[in-house]
Design a protein that fits this description.
homodimer, about 325 residues, alpha/beta, 434 Repressor (Amino-terminal Domain), Rossmann fold, six-stranded parallel sheet, 13 helices, DNA-binding
Chain lengths: ~325, ~325
DNA sequence: CTGAAAGCGCTTACAG
DNA sequence: CTGAAAGCGCTTACAG
């Protein structure tokens, strides 16, 4: 790899001049243009991104998500990047794998790049970020705002849990199992469950305890046999669609049919849910829109010193075929 | 954000000394350790990653994949990162979205970071990389090696296409539609199709033309009505599992059943295929292993000047329930 | 139109 | 044990 200095030397000029022609900035004679271009071409010169970033103090923003293999986070990440590209900020990515310990490291690694701002989806805003004394402007994505982190973009997860449960109850379900990632790793999952509990009690029903299982990338080995045999649910809610797919797999491995034996529903609205047969009943959440909103909000705060705000995106229940109507069953 | 210089000033020492205590390298008096630590803490000092990278010439390798939202590439990427982490190389990611034009830009952006090596999954090795005159050591992942790029990690896609088709033929299928991403964007898809054609002709059957459709992230709107009504296939092969899920969705939207009316099979072995009911028949390909192999190969070439090699990973047919046996149907 | 010099924020010999 | 200085590869005023 050659440097600007080498190009300048070869062109017989100063690095300042070489820089001018290569960046089409400042006045240069045609002769110099020719010589520098030639030298650069001969050396296969490419400016070093890291050197430029340092010299120009190029702005970067950091994004922390639980897992990039979850389409939900991939979607929001992609929106964030697009929005930031327009603003001329590059974006750095870190993953927590739903692990509070890894989360701390991940935030630290982002901080090392001196970001002008942060967009975070964390396990627990209070705990996870307590350590870091001084953070750049930060907006939470999918976590509720706290006194210290007042900027956030969320959806009404409690309402989503309530509405989805209402839907199941309206279809005659009474014994509903809520399978969830660890509440400690996702206030989202917890809120959805709390909404579920509310809907149940509103209907005079008692909710089961949530079955909390560790977050992983693929739930293809999920075993629900014990819970199913002891609780005998007619419906199972998964706290997110990826988990819900695992639930469906597990139910089927028990030799049961979805939805004939057990109904299933989830949250997120991932695309695959629409391609399955029956299609997945789920609460659609506009991840892309939320990601873009978080990016815009962050820019507004970091660049225009706008006050932190809490934005809420609307969810939407999408009825598929995985929920059976028990009302007209003899 | 504070700098080392500020810390040094506050601690009343030189940056060299501040650097020594903060990096536990070189001899320092306890007194200095105390003062520098204190100053750093008070200022909330964090070393700038980009400055360190520049000063230490920290090695980076660049990875180009078609799309991170495809679990297959996400898996290989993750393996690559883990392997590189051990070797102390950071990894830069770029996406092509299966678009040759974007691919060129993506490679260019990787090159700007002066990578010590590249791992690429491209549309067409010859064309895509023709422009770049001088590249660092490069290994192709999922693309066959070429004279210029002799290092590659692949699986036998031709064989995979042949075997999967043999499997369908053995189950009594004669009219098989091959739905694929554009061959121009994936030599992988093309090889799988060629294997399919070979198996068909071996069996004395004529293969349909492949139905090539653009690569996209979600195939939930895929429309196969025309092809299905004119060709009347008893089975459809998708050139990758994500596409195959779209095929299943499309078939079902036509009011047809998988596998009763139409059998379906794909390539890759994504986890979701195992959770569906019926489970997807597919050719499993060890993406993670291949990614790790590519990383190791690259390190070997870049650091030990090892000669470029072509590694091949074994695929495995996984029979699910999406292929119906037509042999005993009246 | 062109160049010398300082700076971005660290690291690394080299003196002392 | 400590510091001055050069260097990583660019960029940016400032002179001329």
């Amino acid at each position: 790899m050659s440097t600007l200095q080498q190009v300048a030397y070869r062109a017989g000029c100063s690095v300042a001049t070489a820089h001018r022609v290569l960046n089409r900035n400042g006045p240069v004679s045609d002769e110099m243009v020719r010589r520098v271009r030639r030298a650069a071409a001969e050396l296969g010169y490419r400016a070093s991104g890291r050197a430029i970033a340092l010299a120009r103090r190029r702005p970067v923003i950091g994004v922390l998500i639980p897992s990039i293999t979850n389409p939900v986070f991939a979607a929001s990440l992609s929106s964030i990047q697009q929005r930031m590209l327009l603003a001329g900020h590059s974006v750095l990515i870190a993953q927590s794998n739903y692990d509070p310990a890894q989360e701390v490291d991940a935030v630290a690694s982002l901080l090392n790049e001196r970001p002008t701002g942060l967009i975070l989806t964390v396990c627990d805003p209070e705990r996870s970020l307590a350590l870091s004394s001084s953070l750049p402007p930060t907006v939470l994505l999918n976590n509720l705002p706290t006194p210290r982190f007042a900027a956030a973009v969320t959806t009404d997860n409690f309402g989503a849990g309530r509405d989805l449960t209402d839907h199941l109850i309206a279809h005659g379900h009474r014994r509903i199992l809520f399978v969830s990632g660890h509440f400690g790793a996702s206030d989202r999952a917890k809120l959805r469950y709390l909404g579920h509990v509310r809907a149940m009690s509103n209907a005079g029903l008692e909710a089961f305890e949530a079955l909390q299982i560790p977050f992983i990338d693929s739930y293809d080995q999920l075993d629900l046999s014990e819970a199913v045999s002891t609780l005998k649910p007619t419906a199972i809610i998964g706290s997110n669609d990826l988990l819900t797919l695992g639930v469906m797999g597990s139910v089927r491995r028990l030799g049961l049919s979805v939805p004939l034996d057990i109904s299933v529903a989830g949250f997120d609205g991932i695309a695959i849910g629409r391609m399955m047969d029956p299609a997945l009943t789920t609460v659609e959440i506009p991840d892309g829109t939320m990601g873009a909103a978080a990016a815009s909000l962050l820019l507004d705060i970091a660049e225009n010193a706008a006050p932190p705000r809490h934005l809420t995106a609307a969810y939407r229940l999408r009825c598929g075929g995985t929920v059976r109507d028990l009302n007209h069953v003899s």
